[in-house]
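= Tokenised fold =
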Amino acid sequence: MSKSFSGKSVLITGAGGGIGRHLVDGFLENGARVIGADLATESLDALSKEYTTKALETIKLDIGDSQACDAVAKEFGHIDILIN
């Protein structure tokens, strides 16, 4: 990933591990504000400990729960990129 995402907000589901984790790394390195979502709180805790930047926020989220998704949209405001 070599594009600047400065000023963009990115919501990444499955952010605690695997491909999601790599995407979190890439977007943070390229200036994005990242909202890392996952069901695995242990993985999210590890992610938060690795990155102490304010550009990363983590949340436990079940994307199958439409009310929870609506709450995330209200809490974080504008989301430019969704990776699900």
